[in-house]
Amino acid sequence: MAKACILNDLTLSIVGSMSTHNFVPVPPVPPVPPPTLAVWYSPAPASAVELPLPMIWPPGNMIGKNKYSVTVLHKGLGIIQASHDLGILIAHVQALPAPNNLLTIVHTLFSSRKVMFSASTVKIQGQPAGIAGLIGLPPSPMMICAEPMGFPIGEVPTRWLNTLEVGFTLVDFLLGALAIAASMVVDWIFRTSQGGLDEIIKNGLRQTIIDKLRDAGGATEWITKQGVGVALGLIQMGVTGQGSVAVGLGGPCNIQFQIQKDASGNYQTSLGVQGPGVAGSVGYDTTPNAKGQAAGFNAQGSYNYGAGGGSSTVSQHGDDQVTTHQTWGGQTTSTSRPRR
Are residues 260 and 222 in the same domain? Predict the structure, then answer.
């Protein structure tokens, strides 16, 4: 069993909140240390303090990085789901070798603190529960942003105050560890192939930011990461008999195509759009309804305000059309009528 995480749980880097980052001194303030390339995790020579933050982080939430339930709550708050990411604008404070790091704004703009483990057999509002925390058995650390690659050293100390626990299997742990290894390898390949610190110094801060915003890592990196994600999803399906694969564009209005398989062998496909505080999708579900009728198309919409929210679903099963609405007070109403 593992403790579930909720929106107000605190996240941080376990190693003194430090993460390695490239260092370029702000000119012309002598004496300044020379430019320094981030190396394998160490408090020196180039380290920044990443501020501890709650699971719900408004900048990341606004662009759909935060993943949590809006109608299934614990302590009145949304429960963290698989692939949750605090997202952008995580404050960085350069610590070593000096506080005057020209690249701090880049590190902050493109930050990440991501949940890498999930409970495949426990669904929270249709998605696997996210598991996070380095201290505990088995360990399930979050991935923090760093250079030349992210590191699995993220902790969620306040999760121990939650009373909700979910089943977390050895297979879940191995799949999460595989996802971490794949993420680190991809980061290493693309960070080192982009010229490293010398390229950043040559291009300057302005051009570095423009390149990152324009390319978002470049088409090759995007295709590689999406391919790795699909491969990991297929492995999960093959090993556990259930899981999901998804391809998404990202950005302020994330567009994502997803295929899910449940433990009964039913499939759900959906094309969804997620924006600030709202989400919607259309899809097809092979799961039969209570009458054993063949499944069909469905449309879903949801809204959230951090501590909760509501959703509406319209689905077509055989001769029945079923509409379900979740109200602010947590009351669910359902209606069913023959297809017209």
Answer: no
What is 285-301 written as a DSSP string? E----TT-----EEEEE
- What gap in Å lies between CA 127 and CA 222, rounded to an integer? 24
Closest alpha carbon to 10 in 111, 141, 157, 160: 157
Amino acid at 276: P
Q: For residues 59 and 117, state if they share a domain.
A: yes
Residues in the chain: 340
Residue 233 lies in a domain: no
Q: Does one domain contain both 117 and 219?
A: yes
- Domain end marker among 204, 228, 252: 228
Residues 115 and 256 in one domain: no
SS percent in the chain: helix, strand, coil, step 5? 25, 35, 40
Domain extent for 301: 244-338
Query: pLDDT (tens digit, 0 to 9) for every residue of the chain, 340 residues total?
Result: 899 999 999 999 987 778 888 888 887 766 678 888 887 666 667 888 899 999 999 888 887 788 888 878 899 898 999 999 998 899 999 888 888 888 888 889 889 999 999 998 898 988 899 999 998 888 999 999 998 889 999 999 999 999 999 999 999 999 999 999 999 999 888 876 665 666 677 777 777 777 666 555 567 777 888 898 899 989 988 888 888 888 877 665 678 888 988 888 888 898 888 766 677 888 888 877 666 776 788 787 777 655 556 677 777 766 666 666 555 555 666 676 665 5
The reported pTM is 0.83
- Clarify whether residues 135 and 215 are in a common domain: yes
Asked whether residue 283 is assigned to any structural domain, the reply reads yes
Distance (Å, rounded) from C-alpha 268 to C-alpha 237? 13
Strand partners, 257: 247, 271
Torsion of CA 312, 317, 319, 320, to 10 degrees: -30
Residue 159 and residue 110 share a domain:
yes
Instruction: Indicate the residue among 228, 260, 285 that finishes a domain.
Output: 228
